């Protein structure tokens, strides 16, 4: 059986991006595993715009009744949704920028968190409709936040994933990357080792 892995990266720092570097490490290790297929989507290259009313409205119109403009707008989300559905594991390379997730990654979530598609509202609150998937968060930060209320990223990401039904989430932290070279090297080494362990279990 093939395990299909979707890797999403969102670093604006190009080849210096540490979360992207960790994602690339994940991809390289996964490539050595039989039965693992990887798709990589760079959300910075993607340049998804902010979600707006016209695009939101296009989802509410039946596919066969959409105007040309609505078809083009709805396609943004449809493509990303199909890609999410077509993979078993979602790996998120997540830089911390200004105490939150990059807006590029939020723009992806804004396209895949669609009522009636990936979750539905019920009398008991939202119910996830995405079944049988796992996620891995690769979190790169200049400072140290894991396990404190200042980690605004991983609880938010887990809430969004969980709302769609993805509740099995592993997190690898690479923290203190701007706290001196020896600290950075040690954090990245530890993160790469944690990734190796996760890839073993794919
Ligand atoms: C625009 C910008 C904002 C940042 N804001 C924070 C921050 O709020 N907290 C923090 O710990 N590090 C911050 N950093 C440092 C990054 O988290 C660090 O460089 C990390 O490696 C970013 O991930 P990346 O290398 O994958 O892009 C910031 C870096 C940039 C470029």
From TrEMBL:
Pfam families reported for this sequence: Flavodoxin_2
Record-listed FMN binding positions: 11, 96-99
Record-listed E.C. numbers: 1.6.5.-, 1.7.1.17
Alphabetized UniProt keyword annotations: Flavoprotein, FMN, NAD, Oxidoreductase
Cofactor: FMN
Subunit structure of this chain's protein: Homodimer.
Function as written in the Swiss-Prot or TrEMBL entry: Quinone reductase that provides resistance to thiol-specific stress caused by electrophilic quinones.
Official protein name in the record: FMN dependent NADH:quinone oxidoreductase
Species this chain originates from: Halomonas shengliensis
Source organism phylogeny: Bacteria, Pseudomonadati, Pseudomonadota, Gammaproteobacteria, Oceanospirillales
């Amino acid at each position: 059986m093939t395990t299909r892995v979707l890797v999403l990266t969102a670093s604006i720092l190009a080849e210096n991006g540490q979360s992207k570097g960790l994602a690339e490490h994940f991809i390289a290790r996964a490539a050595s595993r039989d039965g693992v297929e990887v798709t990589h989507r760079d959300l910075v290259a993607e340049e998804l715009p902010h979600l707006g009313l016209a695009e939101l409205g296009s989802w509410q119109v039946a596919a066969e009744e959409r105007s040309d403009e609505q078809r083009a707008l709805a396609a943004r989300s449809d493509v990303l949704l199909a890609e999410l559905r077509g993979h078993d594991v979602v790996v998120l390379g997540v830089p911390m920028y200004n105490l939150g997730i990059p807006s590029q990654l939020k723009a992806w979530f804004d396209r895949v968190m669609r009522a009636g598609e990936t979750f539905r509202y019920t009398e008991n609150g939202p119910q996830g409709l995405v079944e049988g998937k796992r996620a891995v968060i690769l979190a790169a930060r200049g400072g140290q936040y894991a396990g404190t209320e200042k980690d605004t990223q991983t609880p938010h990401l887990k809430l969004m994933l969980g709302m769609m039904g993805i509740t099995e989430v592993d997190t690898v932290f690479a923290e203190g990357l701007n706290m001196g070279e020896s600290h950075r090297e040690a954090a990245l080494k530890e993160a790469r080792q944690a990734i190796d362990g996760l890839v073993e279990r794919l």
